[in-house]
What does this fold into?
Amino acid sequence: MKAEQRNNWNNLLNTHCPGLETSTEAAVLESHGCDWTRFRTPDPSAVVFPRSIEEVTAVVVLAAEHRIPLVPSGGRTGLSGGAIADAGEVVVSFDRMRRIVDFNAMDRTLTVEPGVVTQTVQEYAQQRNLYYPVSFASEGSSQIGGNIASNAGGIRVLRYGLTRDWVAGLKVIDGRGELLECNGGLVKNASGYDLRHLFIGSEGTLGLIVEASLRLTDTPPPSRVMLLAVSSLEAMTNVFHHFHDALILTAFEILSDAAMNYVRQGHKLAAPMDGASPFYALLEFECPEPATEDLALQCFEHCLEEGMIVDGVISQSETQAADLWRYREGISEAITPYTPYKNDLSVRISGIPAYLQDLDRLVKTQYPGFEVLWYGHFGDGNLHMNILKPESMTVEEFEETCGRVNPEIFALTHSHQGSISAEHGIGLLKKPYLGYTRSEADIERMRGIKAVFDPFNIMNPGKLFD
Ligand code: 2HG
Ligand code: ZN
It folds into this structure.
């Protein structure tokens, strides 16, 4: 983009939004022009840091008038490039909108500005003997606005669902610069289209979330965590079935032996048990009384006798539970230095065995010599397939190779009625493949919806679809 255009936009911001914090410093442009996705070079024109709904509105009204593309920016922990600004856009950061607006003990809702960090919401709820169940490895830096825009999932979807299930109300500035108040925290509201749900998971393409009311729930009973060495992927399905029938599972995660090795190496973790196994399951279950633990141990014995698992450990304290979780939650960070190419796939839970068998075969033929790591949220049908870049390849060659194999992976996923993005979103990186999960008719309707909320195409343009 021409320097002249950038200067023009920056002058407009300075003139029409006096008092708005704006930065064009190289380091800020770089840090706020991207998320955790690699493969793209950040290049925004400016980063603005509004402090109020009024300031956000002023920016959007200006952008609508002058067709300035805006990229919303939260904790920037996304993995599909949804928050990348690589074409001179203006980044709207919510770092200065971190206030807790209201807590209503009767309604059990917490109303927050979009920049509030996920973990802050969890802690705030906990201090009031309540619980916000959405949880994932990046919760210490991800922001609620981004969680909502991407309908974040994480590790407890099996028990508590996705972010969508915890949003009671939203305030949004749409692409016309108008404030929409969606649902206002009501539990029941049968008054037509629920616009709130259009914004959830819209990846910032319809409007900017400026306030959210989150639902809180009862504090769950104490839990236990088990790490099981599972003999094969086929056995994993039976292990899941068995434990799921007997216990109230709050998570059922898996990792391959290769993923285990990387996480141990990256975080200097001791071996969790003697010997290695092709796969591990990390499960968490509600354990309100000692009898539940006995039940879990009976399941363990049964699976052991049947040869489905070969070893396992169970937590006896919160510290031990947290230590066991590190084997699963630390993987993504541990493999970052190896420039992983990420696929975030999902099928129905019952479809996992057949899907994995086909996928495994395809990957072995298409990526010979590449290291492929499997991990993910088995209990909700979501698998993270990470391919590590061979040292001998440049990043460009690697991305190109992965891009060549993607159509086959996604066609296979489609044939199993799955999704090419379970929880990371489409963003920029998966945009070329959206058609493998959504029909032309679907995409056409989505374009129509975008035109209603964002007629000037200024809201995260180029993300999700063109
Ligand atoms: C996880 O489940 C995150 O750990 C990241 O969704 C997944 O690194 C990934 O591919
Ligand atoms: Zn995940």
Observations:
- Residues 395-415 form the longest helix (21 residues).
- The pocket of zinc ion (ligand 2) is lined by residues 377, 384, 423 (CB under 6 Å).
